Amino acid sequence: MILEPGVLALIALAALFAGAINALAGGGSFLTLPALVFTGVPPVAANATGTAALLPGYLASAWAYRDLMKAPPGMTVLAVVLIGAVGGAAGALLLLATSNEAFRVIIPWLLLFATLLFAFGPRLQLWIQARSRGEGGLLGRVSVFLVSGYGGYFNGGMGIVMLAAFRVLGVHDLNTANALKNLLSAVLTLIAVLIYALGGVIQWAQALPMAVAATIGGYAGVSLARALPQTVLRNAIIIAGILTTAIFFWDLR
Q1: φ, ψ for residue 171 (rounded to 5)?
Q2: Of the four, 22, 34, 138, 253, which is 20 to 30 A from 74 by CA?
Q3: Is the per-residue pLDDT at 135 higher than 50?
Q4: Rounded to an integer, what distance in angstroms lies between the CA atom of residue 192 and that of residue 150?
Q5: How far is CA 153 from CA 44, 51, 224, in A?
Q6: Residues 187, 88 contacting (CB under 8 angstroms)
Q7: Virtual CA dihedral for 210, 36, 201, 179, nearest 10 degrees?
Q8: Measured in whole angstroms, how far is the alpha carbon of residue 246 from the centre of its chain?
């Protein structure tokens, strides 16, 4: 399948900025998903195709952040990887069983949950810490599985959910949380893409050029994330979450 020049330019540009946004805070699929749907790709296939396109960007961002990789309290990096792979597989299988109509309805509610969790994450973290008695390891494992399942099911807003979860689990430094988010995103996305491919829902003519653009954007985004003050980055994440949630709710009207 040969793409028209205008279609190719649109999806490549969306993927370029999506790769940078994912390296910064997550949410790049809010560019790739609408771009693919606008060019005629059904919602479930658009989500799967956009996820496949962003995989190299996740891998690149995870590698660039490798010096900041540190597991949440009570866990190891290997545990994060293994649990993330299982969760990503579960979410991907669930997506294959979801109709396009149901997927459209579910999306904005998932985004709303992600945005609220990140916005109130620090307060929730203090509440959990005040009431926990050494069960952080179990809480961490369950949280990683759930957010990985979310990411395997719906790539949009995945970074926001992960950042919120890692903050709640005691990762105080936002750049360290970003490093873990990029690693977990790469692992679960790799597993999910394999399942999407076996399910035949990825449109490779769109995915391949988008993957090249997303990789370039991912490397650029890491440099920008390291330079930004954490307060600015956190506020930008919350604003991005609010805007994208509103857009998807508006689309349901």
Answers
A1: -85, 100
A2: 22
A3: no
A4: 11
A5: 10, 10, 28
A6: yes
A7: 50
A8: 18
Q: What pLDDT was estimated at residue 153?
A: 92
pLDDT band at 122 (very low <50, low <70, confident <90, very high): low
Domain range for 73 is 5-251
Number of domains in the chain: 1
Rounded Cα–Cα distance for residues 13 and 20 (Å):
11
pTM: 0.78
Tell me the two tokens of residue 68.
């900041």
